[in-house]
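ok trying again, last paste got cut off:
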Amino acid sequence: QIDLQLSMVVDQSSPNVGDQVRFILRVDNYGPSNATGVAVRDLLPSGLSYLETNSSQGSYNYASGLWNVGAVPNGGFATLELVAIVSEILDVENVASIVSADQPDADSIPNNDVASEDDQVSVFVATPVADLSLTKSASNDRPNVGQQVVYTVDI
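nice, full thing came through this time. structure:
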């Protein structure tokens, strides 16, 4: 039996369009056995364009969002840094979950989409949006030909 726990942090939850965003995923095995066949899915939401990954072990496929972690020993952990570029104005939830392991987990079932279990995590990312208003007024709204008019623009 194993006890896997997934965690995720994001380096900036309010990025601007064009900024890079880093998601750090970590799989911990609290045992008592070694875990094998561990896989995590984190498919980037729309508006985030994949740039690169760095992992302590295993491989990540950005098209499927699958991180094949492999073995995680009792008391050990594995990490994945997933880097994306914000490609549009967005307000999204990035969800990651452990989708498989060869051994049964003590307190969760992989790939069952239950957010309250410790094998699924999420973070929110939203670009800031300005709420602006614009008004324009003229010093004379009925000027004669050749008469000067001063426009005032307020934002």
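cool. The first strand starts at residue 4 and ends at 10. The chain has a mean pLDDT of 94.
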